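=== Per-residue structure ===
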Amino acid sequence: MIGMLRGRVWQRGADWVIIDVGGVGYRVFVPTGVLSRLPGIGGDVELHVHTHVREDSLALFGFLAEEELRLFEELIAVSGVGPRLALTALSSLSPEQLRRAVLDEDVATLMRIPGIGRKTAQRMILELKGRLSRTGLPGGVPVTGETTVADALAALVSLGYTQGEAAQALAAAQRELNGQRADTAQLVRMALRHLAG
């Protein structure tokens, strides 16, 4: 199973990217939020990958942060939610919006995701609520009030870093925190250390 790819962006599509790893191109499906944060053609990238194997096909789904991958894997564990629908969910809502909708039992927000009706939304809430804590995404940075990784990402982009650079630095900061609480300012400082090093 492929768990990680590191290489150069070779080609991009509406919901996929081809990563050239040592002369082999891997087509990886990604949420639109991840696609927008990737570097341009020829840029270096590292993706956390879920390999989905069926009798007749093999598909790769990629994420910049390990926490996004874990949320994707939680979603596909829900009865009736396959990898394409999970990808659509993560393209329609940010991981934080999705987590909040589940924890707040907000069926209406989940139903805004194309392909998710009332029954699927209710099933998602039922099956995910116990696995997603109020302190953050599985293995992610605990959330303090409205503080989110998205705020730190926006701050880094406003400082002149690309979305891809900022996202990778924040992922490194999240790994360093290892579940400890952090606010936006702390996350930005930690990410800046990774960007400088």
Notes: The longest strand covers residues 44-53.
